Amino acid sequence: MPFVNISLLKGKSREHRRAIADGVHEALVETYDVPRDDRFQVIKDYDPEELIYDEQYLDIHRSPDVVFIHITASATRDLTQKKALFKAIADRLGVDPGLRPQDVQVIIASNERADWSFGNGVATYAV
Amino acid sequence: MPFVNISLLKGKSREHRRAIADGVHEALVETYDVPRDDRFQVIKDYDPEELIYDEQYLDIHRSPDVVFIHITASATRDLTQKKALFKAIADRLGVDPGLRPQDVQVIIASNERADWSFGNGVATYAV
Amino acid sequence: MPFVNISLLKGKSREHRRAIADGVHEALVETYDVPRDDRFQVIKDYDPEELIYDEQYLDIHRSPDVVFIHITASATRDLTQKKALFKAIADRLGVDPGLRPQDVQVIIASNERADWSFGNGVATYAV
Predict the structure, then answer these.
(1) Rounded Cα–Cα distance for residues B3 and C107 (Å)
(2) CA B121 to CA C87: how far, in whole Å?
């Protein structure tokens, strides 16, 4: 159900980027009622002039390892689940690829179950 | 009114990508109350490690031809129209560029009519 | 709080792109209750076949300078603020980099305050 867009700066290894994508997905499975095989992600790196971020908004000190994780998912989760998701993502990315928690930014965008077609021309969750 | 983001894997011809963009737009005109000249689309191709997708979630078998179509549009359409849109997109992309219906993924994100400015610094649909 | 995605055609200078990003952010600060240091933006340029736009939808004549500004922000602003934002963006981009108002397209996507984590694994605005 989720569609995930991950944005970060260029210069990281393929393994670094894969670890981020893997960790985000594992966190979704763990906390956000996402089946393990429900995985759809775009991970894109940018030149420094293309990805502009404040280095200390809210006194959170961000480094060039900063990553922006934009998650579109159905609006069926509550605040408890959102909090668990944010924590699980930061925890997992802290383990691999070893990101500081200050560098993990997450934005959730919610839609409805009727808004998804996973193929075959049907509203997958509304049939 | 819609703003459409299309994501697919690298290696397709310019004609293939244009056929996808054209087919999506025709489906929006046919089923989703979109004027023919209300067309705004970004179509971007990715390396395999940048576009991660499950090859059989929900027993739908996806190939490297898979395409993700993310549509932002005002929340004025009902479920009947969404179903018609999903079917029309899959049907049209099946004709040209000849995609299998399993490879056509659609995600709708809804906003409000007041959320659009099509130029001139005004809220186009709220004036 | 806002996460801003800016899309335009290739061929512009780094200064041109930076002026757009700066102007959008200043407009958000001026009209949309955004702190000055709450700045997170992706600005990406595209080949002409990747960025498809109608050149005269609604009799607004768009040129290859056209820019699409997609803003995700919490749904705490009213129509008056949205109108002010649209005007402020067009005005500022008219001054620098000198865009025609017809070339400034803005799309707002709203989420909730609970949908943001600006680091440290917490729901920043819901704690």
Answers:
(1) 8
(2) 4
Q: List the catalytic residue out of A2, A35, A97, A101.
A: A2
ipTM of the complex: 0.96
CA atoms within 13 A on the CB side of B51: 19
pLDDT tens, B49-102? 999 999 999 999 999 999 999 999 999 999 999 999 999 999 999 999 999 999
Q: Where are the alpha helices (DSSP H) in A10-115?
A: 14-31, 79-95
* Residue in chain C lying closest to A8 (CA): C42
Region of A126 please: left (phi>0), alpha (psi -120 to 50) or beta: alpha
* Cβ contact A71:A109 at 8 Å: yes
Q: Using a CB-CB distance cutoff of 8 angstroms, which residues of chain B are in contact with residue A120?
A: 60, 90, 101-102, 104
Whether A120 and B107 lie within 8 Å, measured CB to CB: no
Q: Which chains touch C (3 or more CB pairs under 8 A)?
A: A, B
Q: DSSP label at C35? A: -
Q: Do C119 and A110 touch (CB under 8 A)?
A: no
Residue B127 has pLDDT above 70, yes or no: no
* Cα dihedral sign, B42-B48-B49-B54: positive
| b/e sequence A65-81, b meaning 16+ C-beta within 10 Å | bbbbbbbbbbeebeeee
The predicted-structure confidence for B35-51, as pLDDT tens digits, reads as follows 999 999 999 999 999 99
3-state secondary structure chain B: CCEEEEEEECCCCHHHHHHHHHHHHHHHHHHCCCCCCCCEEEEEEECCCCEEECCCHHHCCCCCCCEEEEEEEECCCCHHHHHHHHHHHHHHHHHCCCCCHHHEEEEEEEECHHHEECCCCCCCCCC
Closest CA to B57 of A69, A1, A22: A1
Residue A127 has pLDDT above 70, yes or no: no
Q: Calculate the average pLDDT of chain C.
A: 97
The proportion of chain C whose per-residue pLDDT surpasses 90, expressed as a percent, equals 98
> Which DSSP category does A119 fall into?
S
